[in-house]
Amino acid sequence: MSRVLGRVARGAPPVHALMSIGGRWREATSGARMDCIDPTTEELLGTVPAAGAADADLAVRTAQEASGPWRALGWTKRAALLRDLAAAVAEVADRLAVLDTLDSGNPIAGMRGDIDSTVRELHYYAGLAGQTHGESTPTGAETVSFTRREPYGVVVRIVPFNHPFKFACGKAAAALAAGNAVIVKPGEQTSLSAIALAEIAEAVLPPGVLTVLTGTGTELGEALVGHPGVQRVAFTGSVPTGRRILTTAARNLAHVTLELGGKNPLIVCPDVDPRTAARDAVASMNIARSNGQSCGSTSRLYVHERIRAEFTEALLERVRALRVGDPCDEANDVGPVAFAEHHARVLDHIERAKASGATVAVGGSRPPGPERGYFVEPTVFTDVTDDMPIAREEVFGPVMAVMGFTDLDDAVRRANDTDYGLTANVYTRDLRVAHRLAGELQAGYVYVNGTGRRPPGSPFGGWKHSGLGKENSHQELLSYTREKTITITLPAADPDWS
Predict the structure, then answer these.
(1) 3-state secondary structure string across 296-311
(2) Is 171 annotated in the active site?
(3) pLDDT 10s digits, 193-238
(4) Is 464 assigned a catalytic role?
(5) Class for domain 15-260+462-484, per CATH?
(6) pTM score, two decimals?
(7) CATH class of the domain whose range is 265-448
(8) Whether residue 188 lies in the annotated active site
């Protein structure tokens, strides 16, 4: 066994992790490995295999062999095993949260929330597992026509670095419940907890039903998505990578769903308490959950001029109060971003915003405290115009831009003036305004007076360049099945039958 869980710690010898294919722990065929760096200390936590095309082929073939018996098991037994998996995850929840904090830099409180959310998601899809039934069609007396839904067989699930365990495990739940074998490729920078998932699943699920492969997107991801044995691919990540996946999967006409980026607006109307709205604006940026590295974060704040000064003052006060430091320390709210290249990218966004004329109201650089680590101060820009890059490009870090408005129609037009369409948020006490804006904002998910938390069962997915398909709902379960229509012509009655 790989035995990552419980062995990864600061000051401990780096772990030499393996990956799981068909219930067997393996190195990459090439022998290549990738480093896992603690973004807080920049020290080596361990290494994982850098799998390639040969490993992808073996994983797909193994998953194909496992998928038939898993489907034949029936939904009630699959649901029971998903509940067992949820219980096994809950049993080691704190160790998983610490592992993700060490590997990703996300605050420990946020990672505990991620593990709790994963357990709920497993139970949710276990409860839905029987809801893949078909429909009957009215016909004449001589025929019977009906549909049924069947799993694809093998599903490839590629997930990003920002919520490592939650995405590796929770986003496999619907596909498993529907009767598919699942191959998970975690983010190459935060792979350790996905390997821990394989350790946990080994004692619960049949071999080959859940495979974890570690490697780069350009080599392993490309091989998995383009494999002829894969007819269903789901990806969470950036728009450019989503386009590449869609193009590669098209060679096999595979069914693809994409949950991509966002540059999400929050419109603050003049009838709300500006201090409450400012508090919730910080919460919906997910700074204290994932250091702002969430696709649903509301990074564009459109605030009515009547309350903009008071809102901005409260926002800056709230952001200044956030404590930056070691994310394993419960006293800290903000940790480092996940890896060196992303750290440089976020700081570059900040510098380009300054150069374009935006004003740094708070933050704007590395924090003064930690000498090492990929830290970025929580940052708020004012004097931002809609044509600036900071108002148009996804930063994927703890960076917000405050802009004013006086006319609601103009605010909606500006909020919609983007290639993205993942989420939007409206703060108002006027139900007529809430209903109107919910209908006019071009986003797949609109919150009214919310902080970005969504209940299980509410479909989540983006419009425009923010993605294809829905997750977090019954629709996601059905998306991992194919509909088959069956029409039976009944034989003529036997005249001698009695």
Answers:
(1) CCCCEEEEEHHHHHHH
(2) yes
(3) 999 999 999 999 999 999 999 999 999 999 999 999 999 999 999 9
(4) no
(5) alpha beta
(6) 0.96
(7) alpha beta
(8) no
